[in-house]
Write a structure and sequence with these properties.
Blueprint (H helix, E strand, L loop, with lengths): L20 E5 L4 H11 L4 E6 L14 E4 L5 H8 L4 E4 L10 H18 L4 E7 L10 H14 L5 E6 L2 E2 L4 H12 L2 E5 L9 E2 H11 L8 E5 L7 H12 L4 E5 L4 H11 L7 H8 L9 H5 L8 H10 L9
Parallel strand pairs: 1-2, 1-4, 2-3, 4-5, 5-6, 6-10, 7-9, 8-11
Helix pairs in contact: 1-6, 2-3, 3-4, 5-7, 7-11, 8-9
Length: 324
């Protein structure tokens, strides 16, 4: 794996004029919709592969190309990849009721085959932090990292960003924090909610994804991204409550399994009945940045801290549900 050349100023990023045709996989999710808005501000031609009618041009300032298909159908994926220069892979199968790991493997394999066949020049993938050397990863985090491996095996240069909790109004993790904080005057806090993460604002995620299109790479790169602070879920709930002026009682308990916690979550936020347990299982893994590569490669991006990110999320316009 070759290292990206460090850059001193953002204007030194080499502009690839041929990378104007953009494909977004996972465009109907929270991150996908945000990215469409970000790219439209720069006049890129955007195509989205979707399997339903939830994504419509009425949602956006300018028209986008909407291709109907399914990542589980190789031929429809090849059709979506024709004429594409750079592809963003933002899809996941967290909402699948069973076998989500198998579905994610099939989807990533199909996309890797199609991207290679249609000569896509670059894949940008938003994956997940988590160090398997520190202990077994949750099924969700393990699957996210295996998807990255499958994409890199395509033979196409892949820039993989690995992130922890994404803070933004509409993101799954933030909406869970919001729902629990707003609806429960008293919460049980098992030990694993003290595990450290490195939350990142969705605004900073967008900037990494956007600059990733023009960052010179020859082969594959994995870049860990996070905000300025390391916070646990308990810290996040406390900070959210502080900003909202909510008085909540957080009771430490020695044992509370993710399964029991997910049942409680479903009572409070039924919308997360399928994905809640998968996300809660991931909280038991430390998800922090272990190197400074992001700051060397993208010196113009200075991620905000948790307090600022939560304040922005509380006041943010919701473009859509779904995402990390």
């Amino acid at each position: 794996m070759k290292t990206i050349t460090s850059l001193k100023e953002p204007e030194h990023l080499k502009k690839y004029s041929e990378r104007k045709n953009i494909l977004i996989i996972g465009a109907s999710g929270y991150i996908g919709k945000k990215l469409i808005h970000r790219l439209q501000a720069e006049k890129y031609t955007i195509r989205c592969l979707v399997r339903n009618t939830k994504l419509a041009n009425d949602d956006f300032q300018n028209p986008i190309q909407i291709t109907r298909g399914d990542l589980l159908d190789l031929e429809s994926v090849k059709k979506a990849c024709k004429g594409i220069d750079t592809a963003f892979y933002l899809a996941h199968s967290l909402d699948a009721k069973k076998d989500f790991e198998r579905l994610e493997t099939i989807a990533a394999t199909n996309f890797a085959i199609a991207a290679k066949s249609e000569k896509i020049k670059r894949i940008i993938y938003l994956g997940a932090l988590g160090n398997p050397k520190e202990g077994p990863l949750s099924p969700h985090l393990k699957s996210r990292q295996e998807v990255g491996t499958l994409l890199r095996n395509s033979g196409i240069p892949v820039l993989e960003f690995q992130a922890s909790i994404v803070l933004g109004s509409g993101s799954l993790s933030f909406e869970m924090i919001r729902a629990l904080s707003e609806r429960l005057p008293m919460m049980l806090m098992p030990r694993w909610v003290l595990v450290k993460a490195q939350p990142i604002s969705v605004k900073d995620v967008m900037e990494y994804l956007f600059q990733g299109m023009d960052c010179p790479i020859e082969e594959n790169e994995v870049i860990e991204i996070g905000g300025r602070d390391q916070f646990s879920y308990r810290d996040l709930i406390s900070e959210y409550c502080r900003q909202r002026g909510l008085k909540r009682i957080l009771i430490p308990v020695p044992v509370l399994t993710p399964w029991l916690s997910s049942l409680c979550l479903q009572l409070v936020t039924p919308i997360y009945a399928t994905v809640g347990r998968k996300l809660i299982e991931s909280i038991k893994n430390t998800t922090v940045v272990n190197n400074n590569k992001a700051s060397l490669v993208f010196p113009s991006i200075r991620p905000m801290g948790v307090s600022e990110a939560i304040e922005m999320a509380i006041n943010e316009t919701v473009y859509g549900r779904g995402g990390n």
